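Hi, here's the filled form for the chain we discussed.

Project: internal
Contact: R.S.
Residues: 465
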Amino acid sequence: MIASLILWSITSKLHRMKKHILSLLIFILSLAQSQVIYKVPIHDTIDLGLPPFIERSIEMAEEGKADAIIFDIDTFGGRLDAATQIKDAILSTKIPTIAFINRRAISAGALISLSCEKIVMTSGGTIGAATAVDMSGKKGSEKVISYMREEMAATAESRDRNIEIAKGMVDEDLSFTHLIIDGDSVKVLDLEGRKEGKLITLTTELAIKYNIADDEQETFEELLSSLGFENADIKTTSENWSESFVRFLTNPVVASLLTTFGFLGILFELQSPGWGIPGIVGLVCLVLSLSASFIARLATMNDILIILAGVTLLIIEMTIIPGFGFAGIGGILLVLWGLYELLLPETPVGPDIESMAMWGFIIGIVGSIFGLFLLFKLMIKTSFWQKLTSPVIERVDTGYSTSVGSEALEGQEGIAQSDLRPSGWIKVKDQRLFVVTEGDFIEKNCKVKIHSVDGNRVVVRKLNL
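And the returned structure, exactly as it came back:
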């Protein structure tokens, strides 16, 4: 028992030394000339469009040989899969990282903050409440809770922060009475989340006390001064148009519309010869959807294989198997399944994400069908469509006629140049005409008389000599 306490005390002192070394390193770096600090905002909802922006910002800081990256955090959280990607990117960089919690880092924001080497909070700030809930506030499944709990614990451990508190931010079933702080066992009385059934959310004061945050500074300028970066060159990053576009495309409703439009466009194209507008629209929609999904790390090889298998079955149904049967139904189901899976990440997600994906998928299908109907209604009114299909009825009273000018030949006589059974060819005054009889059979070379002319229909009778 005594040996264990001695070992724990030594380990805790080593942890404190590491933090002091980090602070000393930042101070030494601050003495260098041409200091460069990258400020990266993480505000509002954390969604799948945010990780590419954070990764690009970190790459820019690495290429620019930045002295530190400061993440300006103010968020109520968002998607777990997006926060996990951001956490991995922050842990991977060798540049010193500082989380400046400018008021709050809740849920997924707490995970991102814990991944930074140093955490500084404003007065009145909060961090925690990282359990997974759905849109109605209901607690997520044990699978999701377990995943998030261990993600928080592993991240806290990698930065020498209090693991028990990190777990308590996620799992309300945990409880404790004592914590090890700086090698000493401390009885916890002022932390409501220590009790079973309560989640941990820390104020700035408690976060510093229990080894989650390192310092308190009110403004970004005061933070720079405390780190020795008063004269540093501050470079603030922001989303570019492509990242904003990807953020728009990965919205569940937009993603569902794109994939459904793509599927319907390709399906319509397979039913018509050649390659036209439906195929082009479908291909563009699928490329946009899959590209955005790959960037956001939603699309996996399994999802692509499922969709390809479904499309293959549909092609077999249309080209080889007559009618519409098992292959066609199976192909449609596989494609729909693959499109739905594109909306879900590989990481475990709660009912909120699954519900968003399902509703987005349903809205996408209904919206795309309605959109195609409206598009068709608008297209048939365009001059291009009228020239392409000539849907207007050409009536006689408006000057249109199908006659080829044979009315003047009515009553004329001619010779059958072929057997009339009951149609065939005759010759009248060096003019060759295609005619029909009144149902009689007239042999070749017989004399005939034109009985009536109705547009292009010329009726003849046999002359009895």
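Let me know if anything looks off before we file it.
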